[in-house]
What we know:
By secondary structure, the chain is of the alpha+beta class. The protein is built from 4 helices and 6 strands, in the order αααββαββββ.
Amino acid sequence: MKKLVVMTILSCASMPTLADSCMETKNLITLDQRYETAMQKGDVKFLEQLLAPEFYWVHNLANLKETKAALIERVQKPEEQPKARRSHDLSVRHLQNTAVVEGLVSVEKWNADGKTFRTSRYQVMRTYVELTGECKLLAVQSMKVWSSDGQ
């Protein structure tokens, strides 16, 4: 009997809880912030791990559509790495093993002179799916809502 009680306690202690899930809002926001940092720094190793094989990004007015391979290639180019990226006003919507992070992203990019920069703000929706205990970024849709250069 004691053995059965000990085995039950141990098996329950090792089971993941909602608080351990990458789908928990706090954990998802943290993961999304890590994504922003990886995009700014061109952290290919992290992006390779985070992005689902089927990853797809539809940019502003569908002027660019990127797969995982295309995004990985782009972020490695020094001229594509922004001065800064930050998310704000984020909210999360959940449905089973899927969550959508929605909010604003401000991106600062250097101008051609290398001394001044411009800022663009985007409305984004990023869709994460939990697969075997890991969250994968499946899709992004972004739309520019403001730019310091008026474009």
